[in-house]
Specification:
302 residues, mainly alpha, 13 helices
């Protein structure tokens, strides 16, 4: 969903569920795990951006899900008793559907837009969560938080520069990622307390089954020199998921929520060095407004 890059711009398998007991806080250790999470995520997403134009997004989602499920299969078999007596299957199905749509649209957007732009758009998720909570849950939203939403919207306009923008189908896909990722998180909150292995299994297996028919219908033969990089997407994403959970087990959420915005710096750097995507001053100004509004909203919520 989400920072770790996946947490804020791309959908997570789960938001971290509270562990049993109250573990001792180690912010530096948690921060190190979060930076590892960002590193593996950016590795996976860089491959998506590199090979995305050559393969349908749904095929990449299917491969990522298959590899992830194979990696977690031993853990699943070891913890199989936790699946007994499950309820709320409709919520699990809704979460899988929203997560699949979010992952598909994010892969599609990454192959068509600058890396940093997709990340910046993803940082609008806290604002959208606030708006949806007001619309769907009838929560009260303070004037300060509405002001933050206005600042974020201005930041998006500056980052996109509509007057000079060359239209790309990746733009609505990036915003669809934020919408579906936010809905997935709202459903995830309703499933709080569900064992992590159950959440991850439903997510990974659901991705595989939901994407399989569409991937097979659009399947493009994989070039021999692309097979290893494509499989690496699933491995890196699954390792990143583990690092993400470890980070939130060790450190305070408030500390991690600020550190997580380093992902915009990382993706901008990768975009410049690897993909020759040099951001404009207007994009930098817009990104700063989006991040500032997201931080404002996050701490206002707490």
């Amino acid at each position: 969903m989400p920072s770790a890059l996946w947490q804020t711009s791309l959908p997570r398998a789960v938001d971290p569920l509270p562990p049993n007991g109250a573990p001792e806080v180690h912010n530096l250790a948690g921060g190190a795990w979060l930076i590892a999470d960002m590193t593996f995520n950016i590795c996976a997403l860089s491959i998506v951006k590199w090979l995305g134009p050559d393969y349908p997004a749904v095929q990449l989602v299917f491969l990522r899900a298959c590899v992830g499920f194979i990696l977690m299969l031993p853990w699943l078999l070891q913890r199989r008793m936790e699946f007994i007596g499950l309820t709320d299957l409709r919520l699990h199905m809704a979460r899988i559907l929203f997560s699949t749509m979010a992952l598909f649209s994010s892969f599609y957007a990454l192959s068509r837009l600058p890396f940093a732009l997709v990340t910046a758009i993803g940082f609008t998720r806290p604002i959208l969560t606030m708006v949806l909570a007001w619309l769907l849950l009838k929560e009260t939203v303070s004037n300060n938080r509405w002001a933050a939403a206005g600042v974020a919207f201005l930041g998006v306009l500056l980052a996109l520069q509509p007057g000079t923008l060359v239209w790309s189908s990746g733009i609505p896909a990036a915003f669809l990622t934020v919408l579906c990722g936010t809905m997935a998180i709202i459903v995830t909150r309703r499933l709080a307390g569900t064992p992590v292995v159950v959440m991850m299994t439903f997510y990974t297996l659901g991705l595989t089954l939901f994407s399989a028919p569409f991937a097979l219908a659009q399947w493009v033969t994989i070039a021999p020199d692309h097979l290893l990089p494509l499989l690496t997407i699933g491995v890196a994403a699954q390792v990143a998921q583990f690092c993400f959970l470890k980070a939130h087990y060790k450190a305070e959420a408030g500390f991690l929520s600020i550190l997580a915005y380093l992902s915009l710096v990382f993706t901008t750097t990768v975009g410049i060095v690897v993909f020759d995507e040099v951001p404009t001053l207007m994009f930098c100004a817009g990104a700063m407004l989006i991040v500032g509004a997201a931080i404002w909203t996050t701490f206002s919520a707490r």
